[in-house]
Amino acid sequence: MKLIDEKTTEYLTESLNLNLMSEENRNKVLIEVLELISKRAGVKIMENFSEEEVAEFEAISENNLEEMEEFLIAKNSYAKKIFDEEVKTTKDELLKIRSKIKV
Amino acid sequence: MSIEGEKSFYDFHKERLTKEKTGNEVYDNSRYLPKNKLDSVNRNTTKEVVDEQREEALQNLKLALEAKEIPEEERMDYMQRLFDKLNGETNEGMIDLAQGEIMEDVLDRAKEIELGNTEIDSSKEKYWNNLKEEIYGQLYEKTKEKLEEATNKEAYIGKMRNNIKNLPRPGSEDKRFLDEFGFSEKDEEDQNKMLELYKEIGSKILDDIVKENIDKSEAVKIEEEKKTEEIEKLAEELRVINFEDLTTDEIEGTMEKIGIYFDKMKMRDIDINNKDLIARVSDIKIELAEYNKKMKRILNDRRQEERNKLQEVEKVTGEIRTETDTVAKVEKETGIENIDEYFKDCKKNRVKLRAGAGQEKTFIITSISPKGNTIRLENTKEGNVKTSNINKEYLYKFNNVKVDREDLVNLKKTIEENRSLFDDKGLNSFAIEGTIGTFLEDNGDAKDVNEIDISDDSAVINALEIVKENDELKKQKEAEMEVSNALVTVFEKPLESLENGGEINNLEEEIEKYKNILDMLKDKLGSYSDEDFENREKFEGFIEKLEKLIGLMSELLELKKKGDEVGIKVKKLEISNLVAELKKRKKEIEVLGLGRGSDEISDKTGDEDGTEIPEENLQEQLEQLKAKYRKAEEDNDREEMGYIAGEIRTLTAEIDDKTGDEGLVRGSDGGKPKPGGGPEPEPKPESEPVRFELNKAEEEYIRKSKEIERLREENEDILFIPEEDLTDEERKIVDRIEELEIGRILDKGSGLLTNHVDELERKIGTSRKEGILEAQKEYIEMKKVLIGVEMLKKGLKMKIERSKSKRKRKIFSSVGKFSSTIDNFIKKGERKIPFRNKKKQEAISGVNENYSSKKRKDLDSISERDLIIEFEKVQRDINDLDSNSDKKTKEIMQNTCVINIRGVLDDIKTRDDIKDDHQDFKDFFENRRKEIEKLPKNLNNPKEYLLKMFDKAEGIFKEKIADSEGTPDIDNNEEQFNNLKDSIKKDLGELKEEELKNLKDLIYGAEISRQISDNTDINELNELIVKLQSHAYSLEIKDITDWIGKYKGENGATEIKLKDIKEFIDNINNGNKK
Q: Which pick of A44, B208, B506, B644 has the fewest CB atoms within 10 Å?
């Protein structure tokens, strides 16, 4: 299981209308959105981690996304659920903000 | 049934292993359980689909059980994957059903074992056991999950145990279990077997889970107990402490410690059943909260006390202090150890002062400023109140004034040299001189320092003060001059450009230079004492602004790097405002440095004005500037020229002021003034006026920025208070700042987009506005999402930063590592991001529909004029739908000549000499056709349409050639003729004799050249064909040979019959080569 899977990117791509964009721009936006979601969800997932667990997480080498995901899922059985909920919440909030931007 | 046709499980494994070894394909179970079917299960859980799924699962499992030729480990691996797949992809009911079926199959196999099937060996037992393990794994997870959800875990376990216990009762009313597993219809033996197995596994699972939970809860209990003991210990320590005795630091430390314990021991984390612990922790927390409250109150009281003290200080000094200074801070600043005592001492003092030339009066000192340099005096008789700038040292001296003999001698000398210095201040210089003589005489033996007491004569004291003051002013003047001269260099570079919102080249270098200037100014200012610098505050204010300017320039540089257009615009506006202010301040300071003091300060030599720069010097400076201007002009340094021009104008105006000339300046020869003369040459400002308008969103952004700045300044102290400790009022302020912070991101973004659209409108006018704006939609949509992301990120960051919990902040920092990794994985494409440009797909489908075969038929009767229009239309349609991503299509369309088809068709229509370039035209059509053939398959209809249009266009061309007068005079073009002959020879050379004969027949058939005899040699034939080809155009050697090849291929014929040739010729003549 992965926190960020194809369904996540597909859901965000479609619900935020990223399909309108070129691949390059779409990826750029997705990176930003996923970074935000990861931060928001990450704080919740790790909320009850012990000091040792936080240290253990920090010890995972940089750029090893899968290992980080595996760790989070192993330590919090609701990690995926929390992450998916955050995807939806963030998407809704982004759409709400977008509606406020007038050009 | 196997999932993929006739392939056996063994085949699958072989294939998988091979692929895994070669790394060509990642193993995927969906090959066994096809993705499309799994998808359909997800979408639709009808019974049929479930049945289908179950059937597949069973088949695969059976294969796995029987495939003894596969190593056992691999088979089990496969089964594990199968289970994972089932578990991961189907709904819960589906899993249960599948498991039921699997179980059934397992039982069948077990039965076979029991019956003594000869094929069964010990490995089957292993499968049995392994399978039990699989089931164990599945059911274990499921049970654990349900247990976690259960509010009363013990009750749940009890219920489960009861269920299991009741299972073996055949005929029980509870048939749910057997129904679920599809066993209700089985014979009793099977049912019992199934129940027995489930009972065994189920009981084990429950035992394991209970054991695990007990272990876990024990560990948690121990940990909770430990934490509770710690917190109790803390409470115990605090019980005996009198918080009033603690220092502020100690109180703050203790409060922080309580906060940490509160975070550490959350009520919600305690096991709900551990009522004793809950009660204990709750009590301690209430107790600690009480202590916390007490300490907070003490802190508040102390702070209030300090504030009151400070207000007292402010009251007596008359100064309004905006800083949140404490009395201690004032004491530290002034060096006064006990300010209250100091005031008391001051009040005892009495001073005698003479106001101007008036009578000397006695005043009582009623208060003194914290720094000790401002004094409040009260005249006892008249009740006069006045303030005076008297420093502590002076105050002391005035009441107990003793001086050296040398001081008096020097004073006398100064009086003799510059009487007006004293007389102008209301003193009688001659009288003082006499008094000094008396003092010197009366104290003729005095040699020690400060031995002569002059307290009784305030005139002498005042005279000494005047000398001192004059010396100080001179010293101060010199210092200020030096600093103000240094200031001039600040503006060596074009700040004017910045003020106008223009550009500065090499911003980075400029920032560095400004920093150096700043350091220099600070150094100079730091090298003088307060007394030397009456205008220190002004200089410091200037330096502060300069620091801010450097900060803004650095921010501008960053924004430029990021390409943040609105940010740049806003920053330039800020810089512009600041520079205007800086220039104003600079002028003030320059006035201080250059002009001040001429009527106040006299040095001992009696010069009336030793500081003002004489006009000659200004002229000299002007000449230097002109030389600089000429140099800049030679170097073509327009920026420098603009700057010097400004300097020249300023200096010229200054000289005008001195000479009283209006519009006259001296020439470079220093001779007589020239009317209307200006610097040579007359420079003009170089910086272009910059459009400096803000749209509404930008204005809002600036308004919010200012409000944020104001709120931050006013509430600096509360911004560092953890969110949890804020009062309602404070919380409102913090919320307001947060709201503004986030709101201005929206304004900034909106401003940017408005600018973007404005810019587009400006560039493109209104003619094609809609089309281009549509093309920019992507940009705007993208920005909108990014603005949202920025807002939410900011919100999250602020929330975390304001959180009291260090732990939360720590976690947030760790999470940053996780989120920043996403960048890489998307860039590297490690996870697939679907690209379904529905809009584009729809557009493609629309275009294909527009250019259907039906529409192609319409081309049969299209006019030349309409054909051209049609060419442009189809190209536009294709280009439009491809504006985003398919660069290849765009390139093809650009190469397809549609752009210049109008010109070509016009040429064909109008030129009489078209035959001269017929080869070029042919190439033109051929090349374009090749390009069009490259269009992607999904654009097949427009492709065919374009090809047909080219046929039409070429048809017009051929028609024109055919209509041209006479046979092309190709003999005159020997080279072309020879090339053509060579080509034909080559083609003909490959023909067999029979084919050649047929070709001749063909030509006969065309009845164009009946004079050709059977004996016609190849050369004659070639010539004839060339003529024929030129005349009819459409009859090419390639056409003929192609046709021959096709004819032979299709008919299997060895020769071509004359009637066929005739038919071919007829077809050619009818324009149908096919």
A: B506
